[in-house]
UniProtKB/TrEMBL annotation:
GO terms for molecular function: DNA binding. This is DNA-binding transcriptional regulator, AcrR family. The lineage of its organism: Bacteria, Pseudomonadati, Pseudomonadota, Alphaproteobacteria, Maricaulales. It comes from the Bacteria. The keyword DNA-binding applies. Gene3D superfamilies: Tetracycline Repressor, domain 2. Residues 25-55 form the HTH tetR-type domain. Keywords: DNA-binding. It comes from Maricaulis salignorans.
Length: 192
């Protein structure tokens, strides 16, 4: 039986996100300094710097999307609002992952040297959310553009005012709700 790994992915991914948000790049030396994990152990665990970065991105996106999709799956009148509120709530509860999603770009984590299996995951990772947004738009009678604005763009813009330097305050939820409702109301008014 092999040794159990003492590497916690969350710790490594958080260090990568913090380094990218503060310094604009991720280096293995910087990760070693932040985590105390040797370069050899990082290579053994992730295969390459690119593999590590891709896994960090995939972890953050997947964790957030689970919440977003669960909110939309409720299917009730307030499902869209709950999906919009998933962003600030995620940022408060999963700050390290939120920094990766809100302060960095996918291109910072995905490169031509990214392992093919990770690239395939990244290519399809947003498909479920895109389909869920489309379905919600059809079911709610709102345009896809209004749903994207109210559930994705407004919440993301709101949390970016705070991250990575500050925690996202609870009152941001009120602004996200107002933005969501404004997008839905503007969309309804445009079609009347």
């Amino acid at each position: 039986m092999g040794r159990l790994s003492t590497i916690r992915d969350e710790t490594v991914f958080a260090a990568a996100g913090a380094q990218l948000a503060s310094e604009g790049a991720v280096t293995l030396q910087g990760l070693v300094a932040a985590t105390g994990i040797s370069i050899g152990s990082l290579y053994h665990r992730y295969g390459s710097r690119e593999g590590l970065l891709a896994q960090a991105w995939i972890d953050a996106v997947s964790t957030f999307q689970d919440r977003f999709l669960a909110a939309l799956a409720a299917g009730d009148e307030e499902a869209g609002l709950q999906a919009a509120l998933a962003t600030p709530r995620f940022c408060r509860e999963q700050r390290d992952r939120a920094i990766i999603l809100c302060c960095c770009r996918q291109v910072d984590f995905i490169a031509p040297a990214t392992p093919p299996a990770n690239l395939q995951t990244v290519r399809t990772i947003n498909d479920k959310v895109a389909a869920a947004l489309q379905a919600h738009a059809g079911k709610s009678g709102h345009s896809l553009a209004a749903c994207r604005m109210g559930m994705v763009a407004f919440p993301l813009g709101a949390v970016r005012l705070y991250l990575p330097g500050q925690a996202v305050p609870e009152d941001v939820d009120d602004y996200v709700e107002a933005g969501f409702r404004a997008a839905m109301n503007a969309d309804t008014g445009a079609r009347s």
